[in-house]
Design a protein that fits this description.
- The protein is an alpha+beta fold.
- The protein contains ten helices and 23 strands.
- 32% of the residues lie in helices and 25% in strands.
């Protein structure tokens, strides 16, 4: 009898353990993984970011694809922030396809973006810089490799959303000018009322043509034992610049990552801590205060100054974070068809005459450079498909736009998104040039001049802002069960 009771007790204990184990197995565990993949080019490759081509003659600091994968037990999201100026959609699509094959994460749940360093290898043909096809293939493989490595590092984690304000490093680079202070644009027109980077123009300056966004928004991820795992930050600053010669550099984006890693005490940690700084909506924002006389600086010193300021703001804000150990995740995307601003037949004939007169030589004047761009943009389709993405992490939102987005668009999305707080990553998943508002288009200036760097229809910003808000708000409604 005693033996029978013992057997029954053992069965009860085993059954209870099985039930508890089943409940534990059914309880989602939030996990995260991060990794980097080196995407530094070989010397001699074309460097993007100027109107004349340059060839890399040295490497000041290595370039990386910095990657983060999040997993709530049901949904996985992947982010890659790549040290490059402009990356075209085919490179990203190839990287997503390869990464999906390696990890099982749906390509639609991946966001890949460029930082906009102006001292990285050309990936998108623009002005007189053209990519090396071998580098494009290499780049897509290395980005996918970074995502796969991050997925392999998935481990129990928690996540927090932080924010800091840093207003003294961002300035609107477009200025309204006194009548007569702006000369003809490259097409011979004198209708511009706004000038980009006006220099030390003194009394000719009236006021900036738009606002700035001082927020450094970020996600901080840590291991279950409290060790730092990753940090994804977002700041609306075009880039800093100030390199030596034609050296390759990740600009202040890379220096920020180094400083954060050091301050977190994560150097040499296994697996490695990964910091990344994505570009916000900075199409009209730079690091130059045109109300002051320019200062002579040694190469890389201004980059380091800005990187340290942004990193210190983030580090200070980290002291007040509250981490979540079970946030849910979601993603949505859509494609919108937008028109291309193409030249008229007469404009194309005139542009071809200017280009032909150079007989294949480098274009040197603005008129020649934009004539060449006119010929190139005439070959574009009448419409292009533009990919927009939105991600939800708990109650927070992240949007992705494949353009150099004017800051007031990002500010509006932050204010109107039902997912709060929210921020926007630009230059994500493709490159479709500058995205000014219709009002900014009317004012003219460099960012509106038709070229491969600015070709979407005048109302593109209105359409994109509405569609992206629709994605973000749709994710919020889905979370609420509406």
């Amino acid at each position: 009898m005693a033996k029978s009771r013992f057997v029954v007790l053992c069965l009860v204990v085993a059954l209870y353990g099985a039930v508890v184990g089943a409940e534990d197995a059914a309880t989602p565990v939030f996990r995260a993984g991060a990794a980097t993949s080196n995407v530094t080019p070989w010397l001699g490759v074309s460097l993007s970011g100027h109107m004349a081509d340059r060839k890399a003659d040295g490497v000041h600091d290595e370039l990386h694809a910095r990657c983060l994968v999040l997993d709530d037990g049901k949904t996985q999201l992947a982010f890659a922030v790549v040290d490059n100026c402009l990356i075209p959609r085919p490179v990203y699509d190839a990287a997503k396809q390869r990464a999906e094959e390696l990890t099982g994460i749906p390509a639609a749940n991946m966001m890949m973006s460029a930082t906009h360093t102006h001292t990285g290898p050309t990936a998108t043909p623009c002005f007189q810089s053209d990519p090396d096809p071998q580098y494009l293939e290499y780049l897509s493989v290395k980005i996918a490799d970074g995502i796969a490595r991050a997925a392999k590092n998935l481990a129990p984690a928690s996540i927090a959303r932080g924010s800091a304000l840093l207003s003294d490093q961002v300035f609107n680079r477009r200025w309204k000018m006194q009548p007569g202070a702006i000369g003809p644009n490259p097409f011979g027109q004198t209708t511009d009322t706004v000038k980009m980077n006006p220099g030390n123009a003194g009394d000719a300056l009236l006021e900036p043509a738009g606002p700035t966004d001082p927020e450094v928004a970020f996600l901080s991820v840590r291991h279950a034992d409290g060790r730092p795992l990753a940090l994804l930050a977002n700041y609306s600053l075009h880039y800093v610049g100030g390199t030596r010669g034609n050296e390759v550099s990740a600009d202040y984006f890379g220096m920020f990552c180094e400083r954060v890693q050091k301050e977190f005490g994560a150097e040499g940690q296994e697996p490695g801590f990964v910091a990344m700084l994505s570009n916000g909506t900075s199409g009209d924002i730079n690091n130059i205060d045109f109300t002051k006389s320019p200062e002579a600086r040694e190469p890389y010193t201004q980059m380091r100054k800005v990187a340290n300021a942004v990193a210190e703001a983030v580090i200070a804000a980290c002291g007040t974070l509250e981490y979540e150990s079970a946030p849910t995740l979601d993603a949505a995307q859509t494609e919108v068809m937008l028109g291309v601003r193409k030249p008229t037949a007469e404009e194309l004939v005139a542009a071809k005459a200017i280009v032909d007169a150079k007989a294949g030589a480098e274009m040197s004047t603005m008129e020649e450079i934009y004539a060449r761009e006119t010929v190139k943009i005439a070959e574009y389709p009448d419409e292009v498909s533009v990919l927009l993405q939105a991600f939800r992490i708990g109650d927070w939102g992240i949007g992705a736009i494949p353009c150099e987005v004017f800051v007031q668009i990002g500010l509006a999305i932050k204010a109107e998104s039902a997912l709060k707080p929210a921020f926007v990553i630009e230059l994500a998943n493709a490159y479709h040039g500058y995205l000014p508002t219709p009002e900014q288009h009317a004012w003219g200036g460099y960012e509106t001049w038709r070229a491969r760097s600015s070709y979407l229809e005048v109302d593109a910003a209105t359409v994109i802002q509405k569609e992206l808000l629709g994605l973000l708000n749709g994710l919020a409604e889905k979370r609420a069960g509406k």
